[in-house]
Design brief:
Blueprint (H helix, E strand, L loop, with lengths): L1 E7 L2 E10 L4 H10 L6 E12 L1 H14 L4 E5 L3 H10 L1 H4 L1 E2 L1
Length: 98
């Protein structure tokens, strides 16, 4: 998995490529947390994300909780496979999925 991170003021944009699963989730979370200070909006661009497991979903829930009620988590550019996971788990309704 590769991760590109861009910070612009209080907005953090993360472009993920590959698979977000039990093997890659700990490193993904660590990279996010390294850049989360002062972030109000986290944009996850999953255009190149091929797969997400329950471990990857737990990372997203964890980060959403860290952002708190004043923060916003936006998930963009889901392919059909990843979008299905969000819809089946009900997280498509819980997150701002574009």
């Amino acid at each position: 998995m590769t991760v590109e991170i861009k910070k612009n003021g209080t907005e953090l944009t993360v472009v993920a490529e590959g698979k977000l699963d039990s093997m890659t989730s700990p490193g993904f979370l660590e990279k996010l947390l390294e850049h989360m200070e002062g972030v109000k909006t986290l944009v996850l661009d999953f255009e190149k994300l091929e797969y997400i497991s329950s471990a990857g979903l737990r990372v997203l829930v964890n980060v959403a909780h860290r952002l708190g009620e004043d923060g916003q988590l936006v998930i963009r550019n889901l392919n059909d496979t990843v979008r299905d996971v969000f819809e089946i788990t009900g997280l498509a309704d819980g997150f701002d999925v574009e």
